[in-house]
Amino acid sequence: MLKIQKFGAIDIGSNAIRLLISNVLERNDEPAIFRKSALIRVPIRLGEDVFKSKEISQENLERMIDAMTAFRLLMNAHKVTQYRACATSAMREAGNGYAFAKAIKEKTSINIEIIDGDEEAAIIAATDLHTLLSDDQNYLYVDVGGGSTEFTVYSEGKLIVSRSFKIGTVRLLNDLVSHKDWEELQQWIREHTASYDRLNLVGSGGNINKIFKLSGRKVGKPLSYLFMTQFYEELQSYSYEDRIVDLGLNQDRADVIIPAMRIYLSAMKWGRSKQIFVPKIGLADGIIKSQYLATKTDLD
């Protein structure tokens, strides 16, 4: 007997907001299958407001209300039975973040949870990431966002340590990451990866997904440190306009992709990693999975 449940996940980041709708398929005692039904991304850069002025602008509040209204209608049309909306770095640091969330709920009935960096990392860890990792390998998982980046060390299939740093692409664009911030990250990575002879990076986020697509590599194949270095230099040789026209990047991707590559390359260098895997998973996938697991726990 096949049972299909529909879940929604709203990821409110610093560079964009996303709605992921997934079907969860259950048949008899077989493991559940998670299948993407729809993914909508709206380029609302909340981090541009918050990291400069500490507050979200009225203009972006109105855009968010429009987007959340649309997300609500789409979830209704898809007959989503359960959803969760999580806001990360930008809304977390905004002086008016909670008032902003309240205003959106009043206008759209979408309830937004403002989560901290540790919970963000935990939700991402709820994805099927562990099934993609070999039990005899060591990994540094790097999820690059607009306002922060989450780093998680896995060894022998187990989560060892995780931490969120306020180093993100929108912050870097606005020159809001200090030398001390970089030094602290470098020290943390070196300290927690020094005992491993070989370490693979696992990257997530819209930028590394786009880099992987542009690379032309087959799904499942890693990107080498050499490729990442050369591609970083190549990207910098293009103007912002050329990245849009010649490389086909969206306007809000064409600028943040370079600071994103700087973060990934730094992590590879400090972790002594020669390659990065790109499984195309992230916060929204973790929100879907954690909701499903919660329903199973409730039933138990």
UniProtKB/TrEMBL annotation:
Superkingdom: Bacteria
Gene3D superfamilies, A to Z: 3.30.420.40, Exopolyphosphatase. Domain 2
Residue ranges constituting the Ppx/GppA phosphatase N-terminal domain according to the UniProt record: 43-291
CDD domains documented for this protein: ASKHA_NBD_PPX_GppA (cd24006)
SUPFAM superfamilies in the record: Actin-like ATPase domain
Pfam families: Ppx-GppA
Molecular-function annotations in GO: pyrophosphatase activity
Xref: InterPro entries: ATPase_NBD, GppA/Ppx_hydrolase, Ppx_GppA_N
Protein name: Exopolyphosphatase
